[in-house]
Design goal:
about 0% helix; single chain; Glutamyl_endopeptidase; serine protease; globular; mainly beta; about 260 residues
């Protein structure tokens, strides 16, 4: 039983943006038939008119580092391994709007390389850390810190399954890739591999966001914005916001800060 959580508009550097995550909702039942029949929802923030997303296989980097972040309350986002037992995702995926609190860590699961009910590894979260600069009730001004680090009860991969973090910000025009578990292809990973960095936007306090023109919609929150450096895949940022049209923004990973949250 899968549905979509309500998203809400945000303004960042003059661009209308939307938080992009999905939740399970009772009463909305769908039959998954591979990836040939997407949901075709009435609105897909972040998707352009040509929709260049494609299904990918999960057998090698960068895809085998990516997985589905699921909560026992129905939340669903994307995440990726940065160490065998450490996952990065979007902090807003863990925020409970009704109670104005973060979800308990033991209610969060990571399914690495998830594909149509199968996955390479599963682990429950024991604790997570959120950047001290992030405020889920003020996303527009703190989205640069919309990142959460999940610590798993057991390794979900080896050193061959992790994505290194890029040491700095990309340049405008750099080619990037973005893939996640999105609302209209929820059982597989889809990716836009032909997109670019379109801007480095800064809020009033000077903190950056990486703007891109990748096709990605609800459910892709927490996915890595990928680039290549010296012939290897690296994670540039965490997907957190979608434009009302094509593209969105990622919170950069180059200045990660964390504080204890959700013990």
């Amino acid at each position: 039983m899968v549905g979509d959580n309500n998203s809400f508009g945000r303004k960042l550097s003059g661009i209308a943006l939307l938080l992009i995550f999905s939740v399970f909702v009772s009463g909305n039942m769908f039959v998954t038939r591979g990836y040939a029949e997407p949901l075709s929802p009435p609105a897909r923030p972040g998707i352009g008119p040509d929709d260049t997303r494609r299904a990918v296989t999960m057998k090698s980097l960068p895809w085998n580092a990516i997985g589905r972040v699921q909560t026992e309350l129905g939340g669903r986002c994307t995440g990726f391994l940065v160490a065998p037992a450490v996952v990065e995702t979007a902090a807003h995926c863990l925020w409970l709007v009704k109670t104005r609190r973060y979800i308990q860590p033991h209610d969060i699961h990571f399914l690495r390389a998830y594909d149509r009910g199968q996955y390479a590894a599963h682990a429950r979260v024991t604790r997570f850390l959120v950047s001290p600069g992030y405020d889920p009730e003020h996303e527009a001004t703190t989205a640069s810190f919309d990142r959460a680090t999940l610590f798993l009860e057991n390794p979900a991969g080896t050193a061959a399954d992790i994505l290194p973090v890029a040491p700095g910000l990309p340049s405008i025009g750099d080619g990037v890739t973005l893939g996640g578990y999105e609302q209209d292809y929820r059982e597989i990973l889809t990716s836009d591999m032909r997109c670019h960095v379109v801007g480095i936007f800064r809020n009033g306090e000077g903190y950056p966001m990486i703007g891109h023109d990748c096709d990605a919609t609800r459910g892709s929150s927490g996915a890595p914005l990928l680039g290549q450096q010296n012939g290897r895949w690296v994670a540039l940022g965490v997907q957190v916001l979608a434009n009302s049209g094509q593209g969105g923004s990622a919170a950069p990973l180059s200045f990660m800060q964390v504080s204890v949250t959700g013990k």
